[in-house]
Amino acid sequence: MSFFREQFTARSAAVRVRFGAGVRKNIAEELETLGAERALILTTPQQAELAEAFSEYCGDRAVGAYTNATMHTPVDVSEEAARRAEELGADVLVAVGGGSTIGLGKAIALRTGLPQIAVPTTYAGSEATPILGQTENGQKTTQTNPKVQPGTILYDAELVATLPVEMTVTSALNAMAHAAEGLYARDRSPISSLMAVEGLRAFRDSLPRVLASPEDVATRGETLYGAWLCGTVLGQVGMALHHKLCHTLGGSFNLPHAETHAIILPHALAYNAGAVPELLAPVAELFEDDNPGRGLYRFAKEIGAPLALSDLGVSEADLDKAADLAVANPYWNPRPVERDAIRTLLQAAWSGDMPAF
Ligand code: NAD
Fold first, then answer.
1. Which of 10, 17, 213, 346 has the most CB atoms at less than 10 Å from its CB?
2. pLDDT by residue (tens digit) across 190-217?
């Protein structure tokens, strides 16, 4: 297939990426390159031991750690962490973790202007985007601002090798969702589409092998390569129905981020497939089904992904409200977002059935 279009605008961020098993141990070189001497290390409480390890890798360029990164980037946590950065005189942030920790780094950078080194330990892809979601008083707001894009990313497969199998599957599908929706984004470019297809291919090929031997660092490296590509797509182009549904469901019913993505993706793709068959043809080809959503559903099932919103605690009675919310704020999607069709989509996603379209 050809990605060529008569007109396009391609955007890419100036980001330094270092990739390789064990590359995290070279972080002192990265600090030196940046001219940074006072690194504040960020993690979640669950990954606090990584803060200690990174403190050693940074040597005398580490000034402290803040290990309270929290899901959904609450504003009060970000403000406390920003104060900590100022008190310690930090001149760089080192965020080691998944989307929650990298989100905290971005939130501090927004407030302080500090440069960031992101070291992802999941496939979510936040490190490769200028997007920041924050919550305050139960409300999530998202902004896109070049100021929050980490300037350096270290992709080290040894760090994702510890991801539990269930999170491996859901986090991978979360990443794949960025690539899949990127293929029909209005602001896509030939480069973003090439990255999207290659990212999906990398996950398709490596995920079954990762599940067979989760600690195999070489295979984990292939998945992390996919995560880099998929995250970079998210950073370059706009998203549509799938992401909107995930945000609506996640926000309204307090659902876990990666699991929600994993469940919704096949249904959203099936919904859109008829409107953009050529753009989704690479997904149909990769997952060997004329309907890309159905192909992906089968793949998700084979790798043991969660399939049903009912398993996340959504009640069937909530589906009407979810459908109303999904159509409440009009947004661009290749196929018009129609309330009854969305309700049908949600019913299949709730039951864990094959996509309805
Ligand atoms: P997460 O960062 O919330 O991590 C979930 C849990 O897994 C945490 O307890 C964490 O400590 C633990 N964990 C992470 N890596 C681990 C590893 N290798 N081994 C063992 N445990 C590990 O999960 P996530 O799915 O990466 O991030 C979700 C958040 O990121 C959401 O808030 C989402 O909105 C945001 N996000 C933002 C963007 C963006 O571009 N702004 C992109 C994707 C996700």
1. 346
2. 999 999 999 999 999 999 999 999 999 9
* 197 pocket-lining for ligand 1 (C-beta < 6 Å): no
β-pair type (152-155, 16-19): parallel
pTM: 0.97
Q: How far is the CA of 274 from the centre of ligand 1 (A)?
A: 32
CA of 139 to the centre of ligand 1 (A): 19
Ligand 1 centroid to Cα of residue 71, in Å, is 7
Q: Whose alpha carbon is nearest atom 33 of ligand 1?
A: 99
Q: Tell me the pLDDT tens digit for each residue of 331-343.
A: 899 999 999 999 9
Residue type, 7: Q
Q: What is the position in ligand 1's atom list of the atom closest to the CA of 159? A: 18
Quick one: which atom of ligand 1 is closest to the CA of 133?
A: 41
> In whole angstroms, what is the distance from residue 270 CA to residue 275 CA?
10
Token pair 């480069």 is found at 191
Q: What are the residues facing 16 on neighbouring strands?
A: 152
Q: How far apart are CA 99 and CA 107, in angstroms?
A: 12
Angle at 73 between CA 39 and CA 333, to 5 degrees: 120
Give 116's strand partners: 93
Ligand 1 pocket, residue 46 CB under 6 Å: yes
Q: 253 is written with which tokens?
A: 């019913």
